[in-house]
User: Fold Response regulator transcription factor from Flavobacterium paronense.
Amino acid sequence: MSSSFFIDNTIGEVERFREEANLLLNGIKGTDAVIGIFDHLNYTPVLEVGEKEFWGELPEVSQAERMIQIMSLLEKDYLTFFTDSVKWFTGVLEEIPFEQRTNIQIFHCGIRYRLLDDKPICLFSKGSPIHYDESRKFNYTFNYVQNINHLFKKNFRYYWIRISHGENSEYVHTFHSQDKLHSNKDLLSVREKEILKLIADDNDTKEIAEKLFISVNTVGNHRSKMIDKLGVRDTTALVQMAKMTGMI
Assistant:
């Protein structure tokens, strides 16, 4: 989105933002997605495109009440998602030194909602800051949100968050609701990523074992561990989620 649309740290031309978002959404027709701008200072969306198709025909509410409305759709296992994640997210941002506050990407995966028509949604979102102040702090992110219910196991009742930043996205912070621990390490280990990249390159288990000088059983154990950790249905979903969240 065009940062030139900002005037004195506020969005000056919302309709031009909407035009850009509509163009982007038209390019990904066929997916269950919504695009928008999120105000982190007031914790509310200031623009949504495709929201009615995504969230359904919800009653009209004010912008200030929008997040309360969306929170009301959370499944009961996720009722503490907003408080837990915002507390963690705020702490992470405060820890990032000035020189590392570049190329920030924020990913949320696995939060479950139940729409008014009883349709289940398992949410993936990617947030990218679109305007920084002189200290490289941001108030607004451009958000892409997609329903990934088809990629996650039905019995996986957790969510995870990944933040990457730095010139080459070399710094990572993660949060997994299963243990609620803040980590400066990625969700997947270096070895797991190595194996997953080979899987993504269409190598079978035997080929991977030979290339890495490990046993076939070890490859299989790593694959199972990654699937269980991320909560995805199968290897195909594992590769897709790792790519969507920048892990490989």
